[in-house]
Design brief:
Shape: elongated
Organism: Tetranychus urticae (Two-spotted spider mite)
CATH topology of the largest domain: Nucleotidyltransferase, domain 5
GO molecular function, one term: nucleic acid binding
InterPro entries: RNaseH_sf
Distance between the termini: 48 Å
Largest sheet: 5 strands, mixed
Number of helices: 13
CATH class of the largest domain: Alpha Beta
Strand order of the largest sheet: 3-2-1-4-5
Radius of gyration: 34 Å
Protein name: Tc1-like transposase DDE domain-containing protein
Strand content: 5-15%
Helix content: 40-55%
Order of helices and strands: HHHHHHHEHEEHEHEHHH
Number of domains: 3
């Protein structure tokens, strides 16, 4: 089938011969072009259009007339998703009286739209959002006030001893699920799996401290003695002995107990105060993403850690690997995120 440009070029040749050499005789002209294999209906259509309308070129595309994907329908789909980007294809198709397949074709092929996964974030109350908006600016200004100040943040998480118990999606591939052994089709989850407490600190340059790992829960005494005194102080001395640092813990109660605050003050470690901290703001604390990457690596382990020491060795290896590969990229945007949040709100970085 000829495209429009080719049809127009053919029409110009036919009409040029018809007017000049053919003496306006369609049969003579047809005999000249018949050997080119032009369908007679196409040839006589060109002659008829010229005689009736004095027009050589076509003004429409080939093929059947568009009945469904008309400009009006395309605009309706565009307007619907502009007004409500969260509407499902089933709901949208029902509302526009289209089939789901037709709507999908219009979205992807005609309008260049693509469905994207929503980002899951903690739900912050209006009061928490207001505090984070105000305090993110304070943290940013603290970092900017003293030249060379380095941000250090810490956090703790719980990791299942059994790698298969790490939360995440699991898949299997097959032609017929009936022929797949049951152990490949299911992923068993223990109700109360054995797990370890892991604490670590990470700085703005992507350096990560050695972890503190325990089978107990975090207390203010454990936090002060084993996390801050035994690990954080050495971490600061190793990487930032001659530079000012700003320590940013999360808002867990043990992080702001009196013994902890006293120890930080005695060791001249500038800390984000509790009333200046940002509640429920993981989007500005990349250590949360660091945990996710470490857990994803741990989930690849084949064997369950049989004891605490074995888990420590495995986690130390994994956290160093993740830090060297992704630490700097995770942390380098913290300041700009804090500034943007302080100016535009807690969800503005998405």
């Amino acid at each position: 089938m000829l495209n429009k440009a080719e049809r127009d070029a053919l029409a110009e040749r036919v009409i040029s011969f018809y007017c000049d050499s053919g003496a306006f005789d369609s049969k003579v002209t047809w005999q000249h072009f018949k050997s080119e294999g032009i369908p007679s209906s196409t040839f006589y259509g060109i002659i008829k259009r010229y005689n009736d309308e004095k027009r050589v070129k076509t003004n429409f595309s080939s093929g059947r007339p568009v009945k469904i994907m008309t400009p009006k329908v395309l605009n309706a789909v565009d307007n619907l998703y502009t007004e409500n980007p969260s509407i499902s294809e089933t709901q949208a198709a029902k509302k526009l009286k289209l089939s789901v397949s037709t709507l999908g074709h219009i979205k992807r092929k005609k309008l260049g739209m693509k469905s994207r996964v929503k980002i899951t974030v903690p739900k912050a109350s209006p009061e928490q959002q207001n505090r984070s908006l105000k305090n993110s600016g304070k943290i940013y200004r603290k970092l900017s006030r003293r030249k060379g100040t380095v941000l250090i943040m810490d956090d703790e998480t719980y990791v299942p001893a059994d790698p298969s118990q790490v939360p995440g999606r699991h898949f299997y591939t097959c032609r017929d699920p009936e022929n797949v052994p049951i152990d490949h089709k299911i992923n068993q989850k223990a109700k109360f799996p054995k797990r370890f407490l892991v604490w670590q600190a990470i700085d703005e340059l992507g350096n990560v401290s050695r972890p503190f790992i325990s089978e107990s829960t975090m207390t203010s005494e454990i936090y002060k003695k084993y996390c801050l005194k035994a690990i954080l102080s050495k971490f600061i001395k190793k990487y930032h002995e001659n530079a000012p640092v700003l320590f940013w813990p999360d808002m867990a109660t043990v992080h702001y107990s009196k013994p902890v605050i006293t120890w930080l003050a005695e060791n001249n470690i500038d800390c984000v105060e509790k009333d200046e901290n940002c509640p429920n703001l993981p989007q500005a604390r990349p250590i949360e993403k660091f945990w996710a990457l470490c857990k994803a690596e741990y989930a690849k382990e084949k064997n369950t850690a049989s004891n605490l020491e074995e888990f420590k060795k495995t986690w130390l290896k994994i956290s160093k690997k993740v830090a060297s590969r992704s630490g700097l990229n995770l942390m380098k945007g913290v300041r700009s995120k804090l500034r943007k949040i302080s100016q535009n709100g807690v969800y503005s970085i998405y």
